[in-house]
TrEMBL record:
It holds the Pfam family ABC_tran. The keyword Ribonucleoprotein does not apply. This is ABC-type nitrate/sulfonate/bicarbonate transport system, ATPase component. Residues 2-187 form the ABC transporter domain. The keyword Transport applies. It comes from Jonquetella anthropi DSM 22815. One of its GO terms (molecular function) is ATP hydrolysis activity. InterPro entries: AAA+_ATPase, ABC_SmlMolc_Importer, ABC_transporter-like_ATP-bd, ABC_transporter-like_CS, P-loop_NTPase.
Amino acid sequence: MITVNNVTLTYEGKTVLKNFSAQMDEREISCLVGESGFGKTSLINAMLGFLPLATGGIQGVPERLSVVFQEDRLFEDFTVIENLKLFAPPEKIADALARCGLPGEEKTKVRELSGGMKRRVAIIRAVLCESDYIIMDEPFSGIDAENKRKTALYICANLNGRGLFFTTHNEEDKLLFPQAVHAVKEE
């Protein structure tokens, strides 16, 4: 169980999250919905150890994580397959791309992709990576409705017992995962 207990976070002198608590089972899908500025990205950065806590504590975060950051963090001058081949064989990559609405894009340079296409490559990378838990910050931003649906189906089919924690400002994104535990939510 991942426990966020009474966490307060500050960034550049401003409080970005105050007295926030939540529990997430590391084998389930959990979602945090909140408006821009709520502190979703800061919470993820704290869970990853990148941002110190002002108060409170976070326990139980698995060590082997794969992450989709708000920025795609892909190698722009590499092809899609070059960005993904460290994590899976080419045939698995081709299947993932097809299932996420990117068939035939293996040899496309990342810099030539649209924002939504880059986002899906970043999601595929996180899912293909051997990890115990997946964290995604606003994973569906810039992705159209049909490709969101396809990508969510791909994620669910490939969790293989891993849990997923994702953030969004869009209430509809949580509906992409009907089995999700929406225990963490902005009040």
